[in-house]
Amino acid sequence: MQERLKELQAEAIQKAAEAASLKELNDIRVAYLGKKGPITEVLRGMGKLSAEERPVMGALANEVREAIAVKIEAKQTELEEAEVQAKLALETIDVTLPGRPVKVGNHHPLTKIIEEIEDLFIGMGYEVAEGPEVEQDYYNFEALNLPKGHPARDMQDSFYITEEILLRTHTSPVQARTMEKHQGKGPIKIICPGKVYRRDNDDATHSHQFMQIEGLVVGENIRMSDLKGTLEVFAKKMFGEDREIRLRPSFFPFTEPSVEMDISCKMCGGHGCNVCKQTGWIEILGAGMVHPNVLEMAGYDPKKYNGFAFGMGPERIAMLKYGIDDIRHFYTNDVRFLKQFAIEE
Ligand code: FA5
């Protein structure tokens, strides 16, 4: 029995030393030290021994168990350490390798153009004002000299929510709101960028939802020449000195006199194409001197104050500036289109 125990000890220690993995080592532990293991088996036979031999054998069995357990434990520490080292070796980072480029987004071309226009006007002393997209009929039309039933309301086909509430068809209601806030006193110089909505059929230059930037100047002795000069500075800065600009007489109920400004079409060099509808020109804004009725409704005395206003479409400006042939590109979010505007950031 003594010999058998010694044999088992040597065998277990040998196997533990050769174990190549923690799993293998655990199997050895279970095999030799477990309840169904050979040492337990040997101990079961102790009943046949004499009273003197029994404690001696018991002590030896415990020694053997202890020796095997110590060896297994030492091997376990060794294997665990080796496992950590192997993992570390696998995770070694070579800091000299070139990094993988991170995909970075860029500003939407419309955001860029709107910020550029804002910066230009801020540089001329304007402030940026905003108003709600879901607007009252009063501010969108009535306060702009367009009473209910006025035929000129048909110029802007509207999305009504209730009889009195609609999605604003232009940014001009911000004019009316700002003037009302000033309670008829003092000068105003604002630009108002924002989204507007119309029941227009989508085509190369029309969208049912688009952006506008409104401008409003109110003060004393403001003249049509101030408006013309401002628009010229804007157009030359935006499109370059060489692009042609024209002002055409027009009609808006909230301005008198009214004009529209066109820029020569970049796509066809003025010869005519589907972007300019074969005219060689693209209309980018409407403008005029603020109608006395509009000033009066907002609390300004039209005998003392006057002003000018304009409203432009940044999509069309971006199309002209970047040579984009269809307004729908701005809203279909094709990354191949959007990425082209990353270069200039
Ligand atoms: C207006 O909306 C007036 N509120 C502008 C104005 C303001 C005039 C202040 C006088 C004083 P109009 O409907 O022409 O005007 O639109 C102005 C600009 O918005 C147009 O020149 C064009 O650039 C753009 N625009 C109009 N409809 C669309 C559309 N469906 N899709 C894209 N851009 C459009």
UniProtKB/TrEMBL annotation:
Q: Coiled coil located at which positions?
A: 65-92
InterPro entries reported in the protein's UniProt record: aa-tRNA-synth_II (IPR006195), aa-tRNA-synth_II/BPL/LPL (IPR045864), Phe-tRNA-synth_IIc_asu (IPR004529), Phe-tRNA_ligase_II_N (IPR004188), Phe_tRNA_ligase_alpha1_bac (IPR022911), Phenylalanyl-tRNA_Synthase (IPR002319), tRNA-bd_arm (IPR010978)
What EC number(s) are associated with this protein in UniProt?
6.1.1.20
Q: Which Pfam family, any one, appears in the UniProt record?
A: Phe_tRNA-synt_N
Write down the required cofactor(s). Answer: Mg(2+)
Cofactor stoichiometry and binding? Binds 2 magnesium ions per tetramer.
List the subcellular locations: Cytoplasm
Question: Annotated Gene Ontology MF terms?
Answer: ATP binding; catalytic activity, acting on a protein; magnesium ion binding; phenylalanine-tRNA ligase activity; transferase activity; tRNA binding
Family membership: Belongs to the class-II aminoacyl-tRNA synthetase family. Phe-tRNA synthetase alpha subunit type 1 subfamily.
State how it assembles: Tetramer of two alpha and two beta subunits.
Q: Which PANTHER family match?
A: PHENYLALANINE--TRNA LIGASE, MITOCHONDRIAL, PHENYLALANYL-TRNA SYNTHETASE
Could you identify this protein by its name?
A: Phenylalanine--tRNA ligase alpha subunit
Protein's organism: Neobacillus mesonae
Query: Which gene holds the coding sequence for this protein?
Result: pheS
